[in-house]
Design goal:
By secondary structure, the chain is of the alpha/beta class. Helices cover about 35% and strands about 25% of the residues. It contains eleven helices and 15 strands. InterPro entries: DNA_methylase_N6_adenine_CS, N5-glutamine_MTase, SAM-dependent_MTases_sf, Small_mtfrase_dom.
Length: about 325
């Protein structure tokens, strides 16, 4: 059943917009584009809440995304937005593989933001270069995990596997540290294309494969920075944060011993946020290591971040694991 659509403009009040969107009414914007952005921001403020319980918080976030997603704009056949003072969105829509038609304003703004990151790039201090993320690929704006991989004692490595490479930033770090060959993998076609673009500039000898977890063979070093929270992903960017049923963490640990060369190391980069939220215990993590036939050689912790709120106590660690 097609959702009910109402044509709206600058006279629509935020409270009424939230009420209609909560009832499943699509709000098709036909007015000044900056005014649509202001309305969306006002709707977002009215929906803002942060329940203490993690599951209620996630539920509120899903509801917020659903309601805000009811404010729509029309992308024309030429991939333009025919609204006063609308930006040129063609390149952003093309890069995100978007199509003409009614599109949530939140989604369009996400495309524009991703396009800006892709053009400007994200400066990575440990790399001395910029990484250019693609739409739907997690941008390395937070770099404590990158710094850990850049600083960890490097064993004698001829071949390294970077599992779940994303933008390719960790593969580029390993190549800059002198690893002769890095094979980066990802299951996402968008991530594979993004990593290839970045590594073509930063580490031409690196290979990028579209595969689930490990490539064939054994390597002296395995690196993996899986999503840090067990839980279902509801968007492509969610997939960089949430690991359904800890699938990637489990798969990496289960395959590490089989893919490690003699004397090699597996580097698992993981936050303790899941532990702070009561979603996993430290004992469970250590049990997973032992069950996979791995021992902890060392653990390196990133310096605390200067943040407030629930993540103020979070610690990001690089676990050095051996067979």
């Amino acid at each position: 059943m097609e959702p009910r659509i109402e044509i709206v403009g600058a006279d629509l009040r935020p409270d009424m917009a939230v009420r209609l969107a909560s009832q499943g009414v699509g709000l098709l914007w036909r007015d000044d584009f900056p005014a649509a952005r202001r309305l969306l921001a006002a709707m977002s403020r009215r929906l803002a809440s942060r329940p203490a319980d993690f599951y209620r918080y996630r539920q509120s976030r899903r509801n917020r995304a659903r309601v805000l997603g009811m404010l729509l704009v029309e992308i024309g056949p030429d991939l333009r937005i025919d609204l006063p003072r609308a930006p040129d969105v063609r390149a952003a829509v093309e890069e995100a593989h978007g199509r003409p038609g009614r599109t949530p304003l939140t989604e369009l703004l996400g495309m524009l933001s991703a396009h800006e990151w892709r053009v400007k790039g994200v400066p990575v201090e440990a790399l001395g270069a910029r990484i250019h993320p693609h739409y739907g690929v997690f941008a390395p704006t937070r770099q404590d995990y990158v710094d850990l991989v850049a600083a960890a004692p490097l064993p004698d490595v001829r071949l390294a596997f970077d599992i779940g490479t994303g933008t390719g930033v960790l593969a580029a770090i390993l190549a800059r540290r002198g690893v002769p060959l890095v094979v980066a993998t990802d299951i996402s076609p968008a991530a594979v294309a993004c990593a290839r673009d970045n590594l073509r500039r930063l580490a031409p000898r690196a290979e990028v494969l579209e595969t689930d977890l490990f490539p064939a063979g054994r390597a002296d070093l395995l690196v993996c920075n899986p999503p840090w929270l067990p839980g279902s992903a509801h968007s492509s960017l969610d997939a960089a944060v949430f690991d359904p049923r800890s699938r990637m963490l489990t798969g990496f640990l289960a395959g590490a011993a089989e893919h490690l060369a003699e004397g090699g190391e597996a580097w698992l980069v993981l936050s303790d946020l899941a532990e702070l939220l009561g979603l996993r215990t430290r004992e469970d993590l250590l049990t997973r290591f032992a069950a996979a036939g791995l021992t902890v050689a060392d653990r390196l912790d990133a310096p605390p971040r200067r943040v407030t709120g629930p993540r103020a106590e979070e610690v990001v660690s690089l676990w050095r694991l051996r067979r």
